[in-house]
Amino acid sequence: MRVTVNGESLELSESTTLLDYLIRRNLNPAVLVVEYNGKILHRDHWSQIQIGDGDTLEILSFVGGG
Amino acid sequence: MDKLIIGGRELKNRLFIGSGKFADESLIGPIVAQTGVEVITVALRRVDLSGGKENILNYIPKDCVLLPNTSGARNAEEAVRIARLAQAAGCGNWVKIEVISDNKYLLPDNNETIKATRILAEEGFVVLPYMHPDLYAAKELERAGAAAVMPLGAPIGTNRGLKTKEIVRILIEECELPVIVDAGIGKPSEAAEAMEMGAAAVLVNTAIATAGNPTMMANAFSQAVQAGRQAFLAQPGETTEYARASSPLTGFLRS
Amino acid sequence: MSFHQIIEGYKDFHIPAYLSKVSAGEVKAALQKDFLKPQDFLTLLSPAAAEHLEAMAQKAHQLTLQHFGRVIQLFTPLYLSNFCVNRCLYCNFNSGNAIGRRKLDAQEIRAEAKAIAATGLKQILLLTGDVPGKAAVDYLIEAVTLVREYFTSIGIEVNPMGVDDYRRLAQAGVDSMTIYQEVYNQAVYDSLHLSGPKKDYHWRLNAPERACQARLRTVNIGALLGLHHWPTEAFFTGLHASYLQNKYLDTEINISLPRIKSGPVGYQPQSPVSDAELVQILLALRLFMPRSGITLSTREPAELRNHLVPLGITRMSAGVNTAVGGHIDGHSDDGQFRISDERSVDEVQQMLISKGYQPVTQDWHHIAG
Questions:
Q1: Tell me, what's the pLDDT at C264?
Q2: Nearest residue of B to residue C243 by CA position?
Q3: Do C261 and C226 form a contact (C-beta atoms < 8 A)?
Q4: Is B187 a catalytic residue?
Q5: Cα Rg for chain C, rounded, in angstroms?
Q6: Is the pLDDT assigned to residue C34 strictly greater than 80?
Q7: How many Cβ atoms from other residues are within 10 Å of residue B53's Cβ?
Q8: Where are the domains of chain C?
Q9: CB within 10 Å: which end of chain C, N or C, has fewer?
Q10: Mean pLDDT of C130-147
């Protein structure tokens, strides 16, 4: 299935929860914010969301800025 | 005790710093420890999926107030979206609105900034809008529910100093809100100048982050801000501009 | 926030006690500032500041030159009617006073306007006693329409009105309104205004703000000095001006310094203001509000007016007759108050020129269309 992550179109071989996906990408969930199909998704729901075909994810975190 | 209160939080330190452009972000911790800086701006970006980079939050002491900016926003709608995302990231409800659609000079768009401020203030954010110093816009931001106004001293990142001094002075006089000079401050003397005039605080990023010795420069800024604040509170002494009368104007009262 | 809330904010602040404690150092510090806070302004109204009038005068003079140049605007009042429904203890138009009442008709208004215009003045202030109501507004609009061809600036000094009425007047050609609160202290206000609609303190207090909302170009306020403790009254006058100016940046806020010396028979001002005190008020106001116009009336004698010119005044009345129809009949009986400076417009202009000032009778010209 195809999903769009941070503007990039990717092929996922198997369905997974959002939380598992983040961990698998070596991201630290504690410092992230995720927009799932255009909506901000509270971190409490990440383990319940099953990523599906056509989903769009924006995964953001803080960086240095003035 | 002279404290600055923003969004219900008492701040002892009137130097706010930005966390951008540091060659070595691990300097931020020692800088905060040495200067007592309490407010630090951060930005929100897409994560680098290839991984590697340490998160900026790991370098910022936990008791600091995080001030996420909305950099990258070109209009009010985008600024609102970024602010909500920042809030969802669990870093409090402060936000520095920064709406810039001018890629050459990076000047803020006051109209869009006002719109975003109105929306976010209503949602309970502590909104600190970065703005082009303009009295009408500052008053509008006040009405829109801003917690402070942050006029630029010079274009972002230019280190050119307090070029907007005369207008910032007017904002300080006319605004009920704290006026925080943001952007353009290049040297500690310029930060002191802003504070002497009655600015509530200054926000410095580039001048510290890109200094040869960022830690030493942060210390210098911190002391300059304190000195400027004290000078403001102490009320400068008399200069004699008006005291040398050429001819008395009130002599008639004694006749 | 309304201006009344600002007044209320000082309820527990004892102004006379503050004034008595002001030190010379605090006065000097206030004189040193580019922008004065309300407290600095109050400091300059203190007995301690009275010892520094010359320093205040020098700075006030400088600021006035800087913002206005050596220019004095001249205008004169035109009394349309002295019918009045109020009983104000200090005023000759008091409805209980047996004076000759008169209301000019169209022909008389035109004749008065012509007589005034012949002196060279182009700025007129239309006055009536208080007779609120639609008929009075219609009458005023008729008067404005009649005098428009003679004058380039038309002001009104009449009873307080609602925003809509001010807007109608603005459309008819009125560009400025003058209204004095008379006295900001509410208890004293109540005791001096025995009856009539003027008893409504708040309706009057908010009138300047309504005029700003109706987008009149100039709004002129003041307290009738002498009715109550002058430093307090001058303080609230300044705060009122500052409040309006901050809130309505597009309106020119002017301040007048009417001083009452004697009223109708049987009335004596409770807190008379000396010349030196009048000067102190003028200077403190100028330092607090460097860009506000300040008006001086012909209630003051010629010589004092001459001396006050360089201290911060920007507008003066000249060739004044406070009686209804006074310019056509040449009498001044039953006027609203007694004037002291009886010089003609020409004489006042000559005085200003001799002091190096330019008398201005017309500030702008209307372009048709």
A1: 66
A2: B174
A3: yes
A4: no
A5: 20
A6: yes
A7: 11
A8: 61-360
A9: C
A10: 91
Q: Specify the CATH number of the domain C61-360.
A: 3.20.20.70
pLDDT of residue B11: 93
Beta strands C315-317 and C71-81 are parallel
The tokens describing C172, both together, are 């008819």
Question: Looking at the predicted structure, is the pLDDT value of residue C10 above 80?
Answer: yes
| Alpha-carbon gap: B47 to the closest alpha carbon of chain A (Å) | 5
- Whole-angstrom distance between the N-terminal and C-terminal Cα of chain A? 39
What beta strand segments (E) does C106-229 contain? Answer: 123-128, 153-157, 176-182, 193-195, 218-223
Tokens encoding C304: 């004092």
Report pLDDT for B132. 95
Closest CA to C168 of C191, C134, C202, C132: C134
| C277/C238 Cα distance (integer angstroms) | 15
> What are the two backbone dihedrals, phi and then psi, of residue C242, each rounded to the nearest 5 degrees?
-65, -40
Q: Is B161 annotated as a binding residue?
A: no
Indicate yes or no: CB of A40 within 8 angstroms of CB of B88: yes
The domain made up of B4-253 is a member of CATH 3.20.20.70: yes
Q: What CA–CA distance (Å, rounded) separates C369 from C361?
A: 23
**C60: Cβ contacts below 8 Å, ≥ 6 apart:** C282, C283, C286, C287, C311, C312
pLDDT higher than 90, residue C315: yes
Residue C319 φ then ψ, to 5°? 60, 45
ipTM > 0.85?
A: no
Q: How confident is the model at residue B245, as a pLDDT?
A: 57
- DSSP reduced 3-state for C2: coil
- B218, two tokens: 């942060």
What distance in Å separates the CA atoms of residue A12 and residue B59, rounded to the nearest whole number?
A: 33
Torsions phi, psi for B200 (to 5 deg): -80, -30
Rounded mean pLDDT of A1-5?
89
**In angstroms, what separates the C-alpha of A13 from chain B's closest C-alpha?**
17
- Which parts of chain B sit beneath pLDDT 70? 51-53, 236-246, 255
Question: Per the residue annotation, which of B3, B62, B96, B139 is the catalytic one?
Answer: B96
Residue B61, amino acid: P
CA C19 to chain centre: 25
Q: Treating both helix axes as pointing N-terminal to C-terminal, what angle do B28-35 and B214-234 enclose, rounded to 10 degrees?
A: 30
Q: In angstroms, rounded to a whole number, what is the distance separating the alpha carbons of residues B76 and B87?
A: 16
Place of tokens 């609609």: C197
Domain A2-61 carries which CATH code?
3.10.20.30
Provide the residue ranges of all domains of chain B, joining segments of one domain with +: 4-253
Cβ proximity of C315 and C363 under 8 Å? no
Instruction: State how far Cα C331 lies from the chain centre.
Output: 24
Chain mean pLDDT for chain C: 91
Render pLDDT for C149-160 as a digit per residue (tens, 0 to 9): 999 999 999 999
Nearest CB to B250; choose among C34, C279, C303:
C279
